[in-house]
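Comment thread on ticket #2218

A.B. wrote:
> Attaching the input chain for the structure job we discussed in standup.
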Amino acid sequence: MDTCTALRKHTGIIEDEPRQIPVDAGAPFDRGDIILRSADNVDFHFHKLLLSLASSFFSNMFSLPQPSSLGDAAADQTKHGLPIISVTEKSVVLRKLLSFCSPVYDTDVPVLENLDVVMSVLDAADKYDMKRVGIFIVRMITAPRFLEKEPMRVFAIACRYRSEAETLVAARYMLRFAVWEPAYVSELDFISGSDFQRLVKYHASCGQAMTQLTRLWSTYPLPSLDCKFCRKKGVSRLSLKEYQDSVIEALRVRPSVESLLNPEWIDSMVKRAGSCIGCRERVPRTFAEYAKELVFPVMAIILEIRLEIDFR
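C.D. wrote:
> Ran it. Output below, let me know if you need it in another format.
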């Protein structure tokens, strides 16, 4: 079995399907000693050596016997004298995948626009056994443009690929939400129920640990919800203990200082305190300043909590 025949068998290409006229991908994929043809008929020139270094699958494939002559069948599998390998990936995915196989991918990083693109490239990297490419891509998914928009997907992808650092970053980011708030994402189907249960346990443990803040109120006193005018008028009706307990409860449900910046929570607190109009306008600003200070003890508590996922 020659290289092209073996790869067609692996990728499941159906030779009898009608095909459009192939077009060249253009620079930087206009030089090489082999052509990869995408599912949408775009030809990528590339180097066997680079593919072999990036992929054990291609390395093994290129070690197979090559066609001994250019008969009619072999001629259909060549272009400008170069062998053609048809793959099932579309050109947008193949372009990014091959870019990661380039020697300069770590300095000229290909753009991954969203997590759908990430998953398409990761699936292709898995398929062709490009382990280093997969590791590099997973390290990119904790970028704010991914994490802030879809933290549960980032967690599930990182967990699926057993990337401990990225899984922990995503798990900590998700402390901004109540455990029931993130919606289901399809990537959860690729991790075990045990892994997801440990995420839930981690969230609960971080929330329960927020009670440690009760020892720090003297160091980090809560900002006032009222003023002298409120107290003179006898409007203030929230005790300090109730105030402190409310803050602990908010952090128990969402163990992140961002929960104290939630406008709905702040509004409920000033209403409970019976704050005047001036205080209601002032409190959000003072809480924003207070959160900057509280982030240090809160993070110190969270750093003590272990995410008990086995990454081996």
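A.B. wrote:
> Thanks. Noting for the ticket: The chain has a mean pLDDT of 86.
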